[in-house]
């Protein structure tokens, strides 16, 4: 059991690899939980391990802006998948 988790330290949640700084620690019904800053979720401290500062990013996944090349590649992949759709076999149907 990892009850030595401290607020402000960086930890990694082993099952998912989520890394964050501990903002809060709670104990409920004998279980200890730590709130990680980037996800704003509580994690069972039994599954947390100290993480290196280099693994920590000071922004959440949702806040990270994809670079221009990644956005262009995503648009090109979408366009390609739309070209590959063959609608000739579809029959119109209606509720009327």
> Quick check: average pLDDT?
81
Structural class: alpha+beta
Strand order of the largest sheet: 4-3-2-1-5
Note the total helix count.
1
Distance between the termini: 64 Å
Commentary on this structure:
- This protein is an alpha+beta fold and 96 residues long.
- The chain has a domain at 10-59.
- The protein has 1 helix and 5 strands, in the order βββββα.
- It has one helix at 68-83; strands at 10-13, 18-28, 31-36, 41-44, 48-50.
- It has a 5-stranded antiparallel β-sheet with strand order 4-3-2-1-5, with no helix packed on it.
- It is elongated, with a radius of gyration of 22 Å.
- 10% of the residues are buried.
- The model has no long low-confidence stretch (mean pLDDT 81).
Q: Which key terms come to mind for this protein?
A:
96 residues, alpha+beta, five-stranded antiparallel sheet, 5 strands
Question: In brief, what are we looking at here?
Answer:
This protein has 96 residues and is an alpha+beta fold. 17% of the residues lie in helices and 29% in strands.
Topology record:
Blueprint: E1 10-13, E2 18-28, E3 31-36, E4 41-44, E5 48-50, H1 68-83
Antiparallel strand pairs: 1-2, 1-5, 2-3, 3-4
